[in-house]
Design goal:
The complex is a heterodimer of chains A (437) and B (155). Chain A is an alpha/beta fold and 437 residues long. Helices cover 41% and strands 12% of the residues of chain A. Chain B has two domains: 58 residues, Orthogonal Bundle (Arc Repressor Mutant, subunit A); 80 residues, Glutaredoxin (3-Layer(aba) Sandwich), CATH 3.40.30.10. Helix content of chain B is 43%, strand content 12%. Classes of the chains: A alpha/beta (437), B alpha+beta (155).
């Protein structure tokens, strides 16, 4: 196993105090970066080929290079850190903020230097109260230690909305509005927060930055699965596995290695039926693909996504129709309502899958489900609708026999044996009028 | 000027002069003070931000953590998304319902405890995740439920 980078020094216990962090070499790279020109720092990030860890996998250095220099714009330049971690199965940013809050702060200050920004907003999901407290304590320590050099870091708390993890939804929310995504272009690098140039990066991405400067971009770019999937990832292993957890490992280890060697395999003598790969927003993985390396290219050739590094194990007693239904209910609940295909389509998916689970659907309804997915994907301003359609379509396509078994059985053949049986969804919690669409 | 007004003015300083960015923090401060966002609370927030109550309500209604109706003194939120669901979330959620004698989204008759199911809390490696008054309890099993409720009731 290779060394940790993002979580270095905090493998066993959190590294929260600034003195301990500095003793472990913390804030040295900030000093080094500030002695470099902003362009030179950006160059190092480009050379490392660090890619966004929030899900989009966009090259971070390139994104930083899109930010115009301050002498070319009459507006402030903003750095916004996306700590609105809400993708089901994802808990790495939480672990990072709890374990190495100063490395995130240091990453913010280095990235701010690279784009010559004096204004940093960390948008943290509202549910993360302990994480906010730890991060705010670290921020205060950094201020008291005189590390800010005129940069202001504000930790802004969300209030419970998955869509605010979408970068333009986040900006809207940070501007004090409903978190409904914007039409792009313009991209945030040109017109982001308060219509000013804005760099937005995920917590894990920013926290990796000090380590890239420390090991050097050339060395960093050799770790993992170069050229595209460089470095390490804090993988989020959960579900029906013996040892779930956040494991920082290089890109390129196989799903099987993570699940069986690191995670100890499926408990209770059960077998693996599927993997929620990348997050709940993506196609589910079937057991025949378990030897796929966890890097973006290897996964994409088989129709998968690395997403936010999620690997959730689903065992053989789980009903995949129940899984698809619960996923659809999540996206129905979280749809911001701006685009019709997503707003209406996610509701249709829930209705179709409810009927499928009850055994009252027909073979044609399975095709209709796929058709609804088709009519969502690529037809909305943001990818929330796609994120509902892709996993649902993959379940219907890859587990069609299991859907059919419900029809033949006149109900769910798994019933109460499945852990997801009758799993309650928050979308059913709110009193809402029945809309017949 | 109320104390809430003063607190909101402090928060506004963190953002550019004409920005509305303090809306979420201001709504949170109001909710922490009054327990939920009544019409009066929304008016107070709107006054402090020089916005309309309608605008503040429109924003508040978008976000799950804002209560537009009264809730119990304590809030129990059980993650019922798939990762916790794959382990034991439904059993935990049902155990809370049985122990409290209420359904999803409801508040006990004495106004003490509100129970809600919530989407992924981001604690997927320690299912089931339950937020009790916003503090996470991890690896909660149905057997833990009686103790958690007793704790909240001060028994």
């Amino acid at each position: 196993m290779s060394e940790t980078l993002v979580l270095a020094g905090a493998e066993l216990s959190p590294l929260r105090d600034i003195a301990a962090y500095r003793e472990a070499g913390g804030y040295k790279q900030l000093e080094r970066a500030r002695a470099m020109t902003p362009q030179a720092v950006t160059e190092e990030l480009i050379e490392s080929n660090l890619r966004g860890r929030g899900g989009a996998f966009f090259p971070m250095g390139r994104k930083a290079s899109f930010i115009p220099s301050p002498d070319k714009v009459a507006k402030p330049i903003y750095l916004t850190v996306n700590a609105d971690e809400s993708e089901p199965g994802t808990f790495k940013d939480r672990e990072i903020m709890l374990r190495v809050p100063h490395r995130l702060i240091e990453g913010c200050l280095i990235a701010a230097h690279a784009i010559q920004s004096k204004h940093v907003y960390i948008y943290i999901r509202g549910e993360y109260l302990a994480e906010y407290e730890v991060l705010e304590a670290a921020r205060k320590q950094a201020v008291e230690a005189g590390l800010m050099d005129g940069v202001q870091i504000v930790i802004h708390r969300g209030a419970g909305a998955y869509i605010c993890g979408e970068e333009t939804g986040l900006l809207e929310s940070l501007e004090g509005k409903r978190g409904q995504p914007r039409s792009k272009p313009p991209f945030p690098a040109i017109s982001g927060l308060y219509a000013s140039p804005t760099l937005i990066n995920n917590v894990e991405t920013i926290t990796t930055v000090p380590k890239i400067l420390e090991v050097g971009p050339e060395e960093y770019s050799k770790i993992g699965a170069p050229p595209d999937s460089t470095g390490t990832r804090v993988f989020c292993l959960s579900g029906n596995v013996k040892r779930p957890g956040a494991y920082e490992l290089p890109h390129g280890i196989t799903v099987r290695h993570l699940v069986e060697e690191i995670g100890g395999g499926v408990p209770d003598g059960r077998t693996l039926k599927a993997v929620m790969m990348g997050g709940s927003s993506f196609p589910v993985m079937t057991p025949n693909d378990l030897d796929t390396p966890l890097d973006a290219n290897s996964l994409s050739t088989k129709g998968y996504f690395i997403g936010s590094g999620v690997v959730t194990v689903i065992d053989d007693r789980t009903c995949i129709v129940q899984f698809a239904l619960r996923v659809a209910q999540f996206y129905q609940h979280e749809s911001c309502g701006k685009c019709t295909p997503c707003r209406v389509g996610t509701r249709w998916l829930t209705q179709l899958l409810t009927a499928a689970e009850a055994g009252t659907a027909t073979e044609q309804d399975f095709d209709l489900t796929l058709d609804v997915c088709d009519r969502i994907i690529g037809k909305c301003l943001c990818v929330l609708g796609d994120s509902a359609a892709m996993p649902v379509a993959s379940c219907v396509t890859k587990f069609r026999d299991e859907f059919r078994a419900h029809l033949e059985h006149g109900g769910c053949p798994f019933g109460a044996d499945s852990s997801l049986n009758n799993l309650f969804a928050p979308v059913d919690q709110h009193a809402h009028s029945e809309v017949h669409v | 000027m109320t104390q809430l007004y003063e607190e909101i003015q402090e928060v506004r300083k963190l953002y550019p002069p004409n920005a509305r960015s303090a809306v979420l923090p201001a709504l949170r401060l109001a909710q922490e003070r009054y327990g939920w966002l009544s019409r009066e609370a929304l008016e107070e927030v709107a006054d402090a931000l020089e916005l309309t109550p309608a605008y503040c309500l429109s924003v508040a209604s978008f976000y799950d953590m804002f209560h537009l109706e009264p809730v119990g003194k304590h809030l129990v939120e059980v993650c019922t998304n798939v990762c916790c669901g794959l382990v034991n979330a439904q059993a935990v959620f049902e155990a809370f319902q049985a122990e409290l004698g209420i359904g999803p989204g409801e508040t006990t008759e004495d106004g003490e405890i509100t129970l809600r199911a919530v989407e992924c809390l981001g604690a997927c490696s320690t299912p089931t995740a339950v937020a009790v008054d916003r503090r996470y309890r991890q690896s909660v099993t149905p057997d833990d439920v009686v103790k958690i409720v007793a704790e909240l009731r001060g028994v």
